[in-house]
């Protein structure tokens, strides 16, 4: 076990990722079945490192999903884009939120879908509006300024799918991607 893994203290197992594709004959096949390595971040509100699992990245939409057929092998785009999603494509990610962890206040120019898999997490918007989400709850995040807070004493696991979106314009002003107080 690496030093980063032992410092995270997350009670959740690593995330297994299965990716399907096609053979040269056009038949369905599994092209990857692995435990996805975590990227460890140190949020401002926690002395612990917390794991983030980047599960898939597609640089464009519609996504190119025939790389193993056209090039003879699967191209795993997440390897070239492991930390940040920008653009018109999509990203699939999982966060383990430590007790007390608070994300930076941020806005991305994306349409995000979130599913609370374990525990509870509080979504707080920039004017202080708050909603606590529990296991099985979902969020459709539409480019608003927000933060994620784990206000419980238990770890939380949340899956996110982020898709590129057109920037929001209000009264001629474009609401751009913003991160405040981010250390990662």
Automatic annotation (TrEMBL):
Protein name: Cupin type-2 domain-containing protein
InterPro entries the UniProt entry points to: Cupin_2 (IPR013096), OryJ/VirC-like (IPR047142), RmlC-like_jellyroll (IPR014710), RmlC_Cupin_sf (IPR011051)
One Pfam family from the record: Cupin_2
Coiled coil: none
Domain named Cupin type-2: residues: 95-161
